[in-house]
Amino acid sequence: xxxxxxxxxxxxxxxxxxxxxxxxxxxxxxxxxxxxxxxxxxxxxxxxxxxxxxxxxxxxxxxxxxxxxxxxxxxxxxxxxxxxxxxxxxxxxxxxxxxxxxxxxxxxxxxxxxxxxxxxxxxxxxxxxxxxxxxxxxxxxxxxxxxxxxxxxxxxxxxxxxxxxxxxxxxxxxxxxxxxxxxxxxxxxxxxxxxxxxxxxxxxxxxxxxxxxxxxxxxxxxxxxxxxxxxxxxxxxxxxxxxxxxxxxxxxxxxxxxxxxxxxxxxxxxxxxxxxxxxxxxxxxxxxxxxxxxxxxxxxxxxxxxxxxxxxxxxxxxxxxxxxxxxxxxxxxxxxxxxxxxxxxxxxxxxxxxxxxxxxxxxxxxxxxxxxxxxxxxxxxxxxxxxxxxxxxxxxxxxxxxxxxxxxxxxxxxxxxxxxxxxxxxxxxxxxxxxxxxxxxxxxxxxxxxxxxxxxxxxxxxxxxxxxxxxxxxxxxxxxxxxxxxxxxxxxxxxxxxxxxxxxxxxxxxxxxxxxxxxxxxxxxxxxxxxxxxxxxxxxxxxxxxxxxxxxxxxxxxxxxxxxxxxxxxxxxxxxxxxxxxxxxxxxxxxxxxxxxxxxxx
Length: 602
Description:
This protein has helices at 3-38, 75-81, 93-101, 103-134, 141-159, 164-173, 181-186, 193-205, 213-232, 256-267, 272-315, 321-334, 338-346, 351-369, 420-428, 464-467, 514-518, 524-535, 561-567, 581-585, 591-601; strands spanning 378-384, 386-395, 405-410, 414-418, 437-440, 462-463, 471-478, 492-494, 505-509, 522-523, 541-547, 570-578. By secondary structure, the chain is of the alpha/beta class. It has 2 domains: 3-301, no CATH class; 377-601, no CATH class. α1 packs across α5 (141-159) and α15 packs across α21. The longest helix is centred in the middle third of the chain and has 44 residues, at 272-315. The radius of gyration is 33 Å and the shape is elongated.
């Protein structure tokens, strides 16, 4: 069993022991009341003493919290929680003797010893996790903190049913387990940053001390949120002397022998009813504490269980209605753009969307087969389709629904078609902005070719990441017809003299089977959404290159040319962007690929 899995097992075991401790406290309270009734004629002596951290009476441990790390971690909270709470107890010697020598007290002490043993092991495993990372090379303090967190999250993921292969892929892509505060504020990943805060709070609770500068803020926030959660469940959080959360230490240190002595003195003062009530209250507070910890773990576990369910939905092409619903809800939950979410709500039964998921899942499998040949985790996907633009507008960010798609690049100006040479240049990565040529695509055009060139044409491609929230025309894509000569053999993994990176370019023709593809028209953002969902469970991040025409969908389509020019560039009607023939002839290329593109774009 991996170190992180052992650590997680011990943490859950420690929580179980705290709950057993609470049961013993309640039992001791009942026994104390019973003894009081039997001895209610005894003489009372009136003095009182304040017990610091009464919550820790039985379950705390013989060592102090922060000396040697052997004391039970919950003292860090409950010792502080009950600081300043005075409990006055008076009781006769006979009750004292019965109380201290009872089987229940003996059982509580056994539980306490086991708890302390577990707490010691937890501290040793924290150190062991860091030492494992240090072996073989040097790492910064922040990298060590991150290692501990990611390993424990991985252990939770395994307990939630997520396959190790998927966890490893998430590790490789890095963004899923990145807990740096700045990254969590600005990243739009599909995981919930609150999960990292919750885990940090749990680790602080168990006196894990972050040593890196970046992660100290995260651990402080985690401890703050955990105390807040405990407060909402009824735990008393006013700490004596205004104690602060620093490096896992909260409240006052406390030792069991002193507590026993204090309780023994108080019991002799014959306030047994108050003592038994204090025991019940303490048991309740311990249970509230353990429930809070469990709830924090449950929130993390639920996220991983959701991911495991979604991954099964992606892998199963024969999805049930419930599985389809699961996938759609997941997409709606994590997509940040309302236009995308609205499409999903209105098209939750879309056969085409799930066929796209199948297509990209097949791509994932092909990538896995070629994993050793792919030199980086950044891949370039060239999506080849028939395309057009509508009057309706969407934010450019719609095309980047999840962080697994780094950017989407468009190559022609708005209101412009492309020829096979341009598509081939996009696919191979050979085309550069200076290669663009423009001409009229209509027969008998009276407008000279030079007037088809936009007056202001940026010396770059149209990046949707750079465009951000700016409005662009809604791009509609239509599937390709399968050429009769079999030029399309499926995905094209390009290699050789095809630009950089050589091994990471995948050409995907938009081809769907049967009647589905014959009359289908989809917003391009649906394509990037399906792709990004599948990539969530891989180690890859993609830049998507669209090889498609961006002309008006019909002659009646009205476009705001000024807006389109401000966003990038716009051509007059019936304009085509081409690629110089002499550039094509200089490429020792893939003739099948070019033939296939020629059949599409002419």
